Amino acid sequence: MLVQATNKYKELNLKDNELGRIPNEGETFEVTEERYKVLTQTNKFNAVFVEKVEEVKEIETATKKTKTETAVKKPRKKTK
Which of 4, 16, 62, 71 is most buried by a 10 A CB count? Predict the structure, then answer.
């Protein structure tokens, strides 16, 4: 899961255990679901250290332009 660091790391002067350093505010990094819960809910500081980043994936859609052909009826001359 992709998350973005808040300013709580700097305010409390805490080093992230997995990164091994204090992340800057707005820095994005990858964490597991369990780690996300710890960084947002179940920590002893009762602080939210990260925010979830919504991943926007651009999906390219191909549109098929169909060209309809119309048959033109040509008059025939009758042969005797």
Answer: 16
